[in-house]
Write a structure and sequence with these properties.
heterodimer, A: two-stranded antiparallel ribbon, 6 helices, B: mainly alpha
């Protein structure tokens, strides 16, 4: 019960990172800078499966998305439309892990993550 | 004596409060205390289903297979998994109607769910505005708060004239 009560006090977002930091992190790991054009193609590609990233996040992901199977509304993914995205590194890791497995049936490489982030960072208002 | 009275009243109101969800909505209401992780982790993709909609054994299977969660990866870190499993187990459905484990541990395959929705034509579930029987909130405007009363219903977009007529039945 004490553990439950304590977890209720934790902030929902740690705000320990930004899209620029994440982009630089994965670009370093990949040994090449993220490329927005490659990221856009990757984001919209189904990779031989049923879904692309855009199936849930929309094309382009600057407005509210919709979960491809449940229909639940999803907050906009592009930081230009939603400043809360990519501000919590644990959350970023978790959703890349889950969603890459859903779309590609494997985890994404640092180069792929850097490309997608370069694409998302390039989406700026007005949309 | 005066000091005892408020305590007695408090005990009585707590007992009543514990009974209220069962009385109000057949025991399917959301518990008052919902871990933020439940909203963050589970309700990102679907409605925050009330724990009482599935029996404990179904929740146990759901939570032990989150890597393959109805076609998606919904895996959690160990601490969050433990916290949410404990919460779901303690509020799982126990009353007669929910005690039965539905096929594939799907709420939408429960006998009570199918009976409640027997007048909904299969085509209605396929509407773009609905997409899935799991998308409770399209029609049940109080779904996120665990309210499923007929008074909180809204017609989904795209119903035919005949389907709209049947809605009133």
């Amino acid at each position: 019960m004490a553990a439950l009560a304590c977890s209720l006090c934790l902030p929902a977002h740690a705000a320990d990172t930004s899209i620029a930091q994440q982009l630089s992190h994965w670009s370093t790991q990949a040994g090449q800078p993220g490329n927005a054009q490659r990221g856009q193609a990757f984001f919209n590609n189904r990779h031989g499966g049923e879904w692309s990233c855009s199936s849930c996040h929309g094309t382009p992901p600057t407005g509210a998305g919709r979960h491809a199977s449940t229909g639940k509304a999803i907050d906009p993914l592009a930081p230009g439309a939603n400043p809360r995205t990519f501000t919590d590194s644990a959350r970023v890791e978790k959703w890349f892990r889950r969603n890459c497995k859903d779309v590609l049936a494997r985890e994404c490489s640092p180069a792929e993550k850097a490309d997608v982030l370069a694409y998302l960072a390039s989406l700026k208002p007005p949309f | 004596m005066n000091a005892l009275l408020p305590r007695t009243l408090l005990a009585a109101s707590l007992a009543l409060g514990a009974m209220l969800p069962a009385l109000a909505d057949g025991g399917r209401a959301m518990p008052r205390s919902v871990p933020p992780a439940y909203t963050q982790e589970c309700a990102s993709c679907h409605v925050a289903y009330s724990p009482s909609m599935l029996p404990a054994r179904s929740w146990q299977r759901v939570m032990s297979g989150l890597e393959r969660h109805y076609g998606t990866d919904a895996s959690l870190d160990a601490a969050t998994l433990q916290q949410l499993s404990t919460w779901l187990q303690s509020y799982a459905g126990t009353y007669k109607r929910v005690a039965e484990e539905p096929p594939q541990d799907r709420i939408t395959r429960s006998a009570w769910f199918e009976r409640k929705h027997r007048k909904v034509e299969p085509a209605v579930w396929q509407l773009p505005s609905v997409k899935s029987a799991a998308n409770c909130a399209t029609c049940h405007t109080g779904a996120e708060q665990g309210r499923f009363s007929d008074d909180d219903l809204r017609m989904p977009a795209g119903l035919s004239a005949r389907q709209r007529q049947a809605w009133a039945d």
